[in-house]
Amino acid sequence: MRLTALAASTVQYAPPIAAGVLQGxxxxxPTASHILDRVLVLEMVRVTEAAAIAASSLVGxxxxxxxxxxxxxxxxxxxxxxxxxxxxxxxxxxxxxxxxLYIGEKVGAAQGKGPKIDIxxxxxxxxxICAKAGPNALAVLAVAEEGCxxxxxxxxxxxxxxxxxxxxxxxxxxxxxxxxxxxxxxAKGVAPHEIIACVLDRPxxxxxxxxxxxxxxxxxxxxxxxxxxxxxxxxxxxxxxVYMGSGGAPExxxxxxxxxxxxxxxxxxxxxxxxxERARARKWGIEDLDMIYDLTxxxxxxCIFAATxxxxxSLLEGVKRVRGKMTTESVVMRASSGTVRWxxxxxxxx
Length: 350
What we know:
Strand content: 25-35%
Radius of gyration: 19 Å
Helix content: 25-40%
Distance between the termini: 6 Å
Order of helices and strands: EHHEEEHEEHEHEHEHEHEHEEEE
Number of helices: 9
Shape: globular
């Protein structure tokens, strides 16, 4: 089936996801960027919708590569229709690894004359999730002015994140997981056993999970999709208080772009397995390999974050096909206004 028109779209406006949950961590809004025009906010939704719709036809088919390829092609085509001079700073990999949407690729229909935009993207966050028809597969995109998103190498990053409302410094990678949980619990006014942590279900996290459970902390294990895991800390309905563990560094940049819009705290440290990964980091301009990154080190200034659900999840509903049309659900956020827009779309099919 072929997408032919946008039949209907509903936009709901909302304040930051977890506004007013706790007192503390007031963060002044960044100045609105004249580069990131208001029109561009909803254009980003069209881009993530295109990728999600393309990937949705391969949900549950067991072919991760095919689903990812479909999402990449659709997102690239949608970006190239926009009036902007864009550069991919977080993408599918380096040029020799990725034929499209590689790091450094230029996208947009106004090269050399349109607004200069840095773009971080994951056309299909959760390729395994999509292939297995699991929850929380997303098409994700973040944009900012040139130079405002860290050009993170494709290595692991140790991460910890909380949503808005906590005093500055409540989390710290120099502390143990137990110490971080106790600090969060004290700030929230509850016992440590009432804290819920989200962790990727990986063998490398066995000790982390065991330590958290030893102090009575609840652990929500996710199979993939740590961007959604970080964002879940901002939504009280998920009951998740903190995200912990290691995942991809590029996903850390995307998650920070979202937190810049709705509030929260993030700490990250790059993890290197060999000299090749260290050399890759230096190639992208990273000299301090032991640096602990704060939220604004990864995403600064005015940012726009957009995501569309591919499969149903805690953040968004997935793509649905019903009676000759498809429905999508998306979220788009902007840092300078703190605005969150939930967008429901109906797309007519031939």
